[in-house]
Amino acid sequence: MLEAVRRWFTWGGALPAWEEFGAWARDHHWTLKRTIAHDGWAMDHNPRHAGWRIEWGPAQRSFMSSHEFRIRFEVALNSDVQALVLDRPLLARLDHEVYAQFTDNVQTRLDEQTPEEMRWLAMHAKLSPNQMGVALRDRYGAIANDTLWLSHWLQGPVSEALRKRAEAMPIEAVSAEPFLLRLARGQVVIRQSASTPGVKMLETCVAVAESVGQALRKSA
Q1: Are residues 87 and 45 in the same domain?
Q2: Which residue among 53, 104, 106, 188 sits deepest, i.e. has the most Cβ atoms within 10 Å of its Cβ?
Q3: How far from the centroid of its chain's Cα atoms is residue 37's Cα?
Q4: Which DSSP string do the residues of 24-56 spell out, in sequence order?
Q5: C-alpha distances in angstroms, 126 versus 42, 148, 164, 178, 185?
Q6: Residue 63 domain-assigned?
Q7: 68 in any annotated domain
Q8: CA-based nearest residue to 30, from 40, 20, 42, 44
Q9: pTM (2 d.p.)
Q10: Cα 157 versus chain centre, distance
Q11: How many separate domains does the chain show?
């Protein structure tokens, strides 16, 4: 609570780029509102994207930066599918942290306090560079409980949207502002670190989310 109050006074009562996001929301038919704690915002009630919710606020994962964009929506997807697509530097970092937890004398197992994404690293297989495809293998890694399904699904519109995001995000910025796409239990969650949020970064995330929705409808 004290941190939220500090940010309120630091930002002078206005969130970063608030006017720009307000204009973008109006132009794209989203309802924009501040969150109750006044430390972020949410967009929803879009006629083209029923059930979608876009948020910006404090990060919910320790491996992200201080703040993040989040996009969530439900899909008609096999509930058994569990998959992650993430920036390669983030994958390497999480691999290291999972290994450290397994080899730590104090904690030798991954418990419920460990983020789900890290537990999956110990449970599921990684896609090989060939399975990722030429357009993605240098910038992204992926894991899944069905690597053949994920490799096939990543082709087409998803690959193109992720490639464009990579082009818009300099490689030197990826370690500080990582990206993660998760599919699980019929839900899509996209996280993009955004300590300083901008409309262009949000638009690349929305484009990825739209491509994911399109690809999942085709594979249903």
Answers
A1: no
A2: 188
A3: 22
A4: HHHHTT-EEEE-TTSS-EEEE-BTTBTT-EEEE
A5: 33, 11, 23, 18, 19
A6: no
A7: no
A8: 44
A9: 0.88
A10: 17
A11: 2
